[in-house]
Known about the structure:
mainly alpha, two-stranded antiparallel ribbon
Amino acid sequence: MAIVSIWIREANLLLQKDRRVLLVLIVVSLVSGCADYMNHRDSITFGLGNAVEANKAIHTQDPFPPQAQRTRIASDGKVIRRVVNEYQTGGSVNMQPAPAMATANGAAVGN
């Protein structure tokens, strides 16, 4: 009778381990099914979103505002030169004015 009771206890322990293993296998299979479902999505990349928004972004003619196309900057070259020199020297510097350019007939252009 003692041998049978030992065998029954061992059988119960094995059944408990088998139940745990079976439970783990069921949970793993359910989770792997979810991962497969998540791979079948309707998007280009994770960062961009879905395909419709990607196509809208690709076919946008000019995403920049009209002010970005303006290439003429309203400033004077003398002011820019002074600011750059102040930046390079680390402070205010008294600059000599740039010499006036002469034209073909000898008249000064500039100042």
